[in-house]
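User: Design a sequence. Structure:
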């Protein structure tokens, strides 16, 4: 067995248990290509740990609504020690970026997986804001990572939209979600970047590359995350985002 194939089998077993090689497989060649690329090539590139890779995978699969595969990787994440609350936060924070309906689809899959593993629902609350302070608390995080870019870009809109649209973003994406427990800010920003890359939202990817770096992720971590994305969202979308990182790094030299 080649080193590449051997590595892929070890990683697969760590995540899903030993592979049943006796099971009927109508597409064995495709399965081998998939496993050696994702669990061989990607898992050997960069220094991301299993936890971070599975959080990226869950984020991407939820974003793309690949729900059967999401179910499998939620189980894999729990198997390697990711906490249920972490997985819930990964999915919850997608709402501002892909909307409530698709987020609810992913939440339903997560709850099915947790229930099947005997986890009591609902999980403990992680919210830390109220209607009185969600704007201020969200603004603090937004300002530290992104400054006034959103408000400045919309300042020419007629009232009430020039004020209302930036406020909605501050209070929703940052006040309601970024302030929650369960994930730290660097992890949240890295995963949001991956979701935006999977959605092929180039202007937002550009902004969130800066945000992920400002939150404390190294360029190597950001690049490894986007390379990992290629196995689930496809190579073109991953490379689109990687080029943006490359442009930023080149500009900083």
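Assistant: Done.
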């Amino acid at each position: 067995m080649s080193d590449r194939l051997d590595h892929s089998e070890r990683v697969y077993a760590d995540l899903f248990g030993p592979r049943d090689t006796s099971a009927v497989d109508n597409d064995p060649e495709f399965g081998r290509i998939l496993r050696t690329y994702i669990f061989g090539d990607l898992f050997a590139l960069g220094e991301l740990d299993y936890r971070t890779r599975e959080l990226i995978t869950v984020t991407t699969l939820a974003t793309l609504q690949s729900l059967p595969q999401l179910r499998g990787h939620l189980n894999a994440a729990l198997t390697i020690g990711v906490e249920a609350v972490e997985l819930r936060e990964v999915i919850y924070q997608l709402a501002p970026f892909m909307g409530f309906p698709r987020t609810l689809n992913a939440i339903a899959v997560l709850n099915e997986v947790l229930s099947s593993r005997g986890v009591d629902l609902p999980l403990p609350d992680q919210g830390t804001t109220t209607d009185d302070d969600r704007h201020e608390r969200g603004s603090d995080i937004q300002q530290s990572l992104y400054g006034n870019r959103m408000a400045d870009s919309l300042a020419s809109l007629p009232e009430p939209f020039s004020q209302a649209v930036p406020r909605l973003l501050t209070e929703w994406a940052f006040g309601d979600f970024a302030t929650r427990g369960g994930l730290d800010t660097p992890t949240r920003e890295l995963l949001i970047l991956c979701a935006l890359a999977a959605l092929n939202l180039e202007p937002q990817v550009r902004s969130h590359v800066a945000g992920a770096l400002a939150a404390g992720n190294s360029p190597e971590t950001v690049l490894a995350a986007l390379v990992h994305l290629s196995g689930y969202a496809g190579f073109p979308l991953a490379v689109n985002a990687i080029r943006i990182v490359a442009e930023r790094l080149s500009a900083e030299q």
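The chain is about 70% helix and 0% strand. The mean pLDDT is 97.
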